[in-house]
Automatic annotation (TrEMBL):
Organism: Pontibacter oryzae
InterPro entries reported in the protein's UniProt record: OMP/PagP_B-barrel
Signal peptide start-end: 1-19
Name listed for the protein in its UniProt record: Outer membrane protein beta-barrel domain-containing protein
Domain of life: Bacteria
Keywords: Signal
Length: 188
């Protein structure tokens, strides 16, 4: 069971649903993906990506539309160490958490190239505005013991917080494969 969970967590899951349409009609696409990565007991990362678009099919080869995408990801890390030195020891603990969010919206164009009467290769171009933000938090502490008695806190409990926001333009060119179940008569 653990291996199955690890396999699912390490594999990018992509679900994409498309409605096949005829010329001069609208169609909608939706996509989503998730990743879960757990390196060891003290480190893990999660990510969720959702997207969609509304498109207008100009003819059997071209479609134009508006696309959106939203991504959320989180990573956490907790570490600790105990070091012995003679009759005493010192300990160190640290933890950190980072969260990332991004949004994208923009126009897209898609060109379909028929390979068979029911299968088509497509190329897609997107451009638009991209926003992202990230926040990170971390804390650490250390202490020492000598002969079973508490000696001192080597340093102190430290906390750190930072955030970042950005806006940018983004352009993407990608390819894909789709079925053309409703367009068979157009391609013959």
């Amino acid at each position: 069971m653990k291996r199955l969970i690890l396999l699912i967590g390490c594999t990018f899951i992509l679900v994409q649903a498309k409605a096949q349409v005829q010329e001069r009609t609208f169609f909608v696409t939706a996509s989503g993906g998730a990743t879960i990565h757990k390196e060891n007991k003290s480190s893990k990362a999660k990510s969720l990506k959702l997207g969609g678009s509304i498109n207008y099919q100009l003819n059997h080869s071209w479609s134009l539309g508006l696309t959106t995408e939203h991504t959320i990801s989180t990573s956490e890390s907790n570490q600790g160490a105990i070091l012995s030195s003679g009759s005493g020891y010192s300990s160190y603990r640290s933890s950190s958490e980072a969260q990332f969010k991004s949004w994208f919206i923009g126009p897209q164009a898609r060109y379909y190239y028929p390979l068979h009467n029911k299968i088509s290769l497509f190329g897609e171009a997107q451009t638009g505005v991209y926003w992202e933000s990230s926040e990170s938090k971390s804390a650490s502490a250390s202490s020492g013991y000598l002969g079973g008695n508490f000696v001192s806190t080597n340093g102190s409990i430290a906390k750190d917080y930072s955030s970042f926001k950005a806006k940018a333009a983004r352009a993407i060119v990608s390819q894909g494969l789709c079925t053309l179940s409703n367009r068979v008569s157009e391609l013959n």
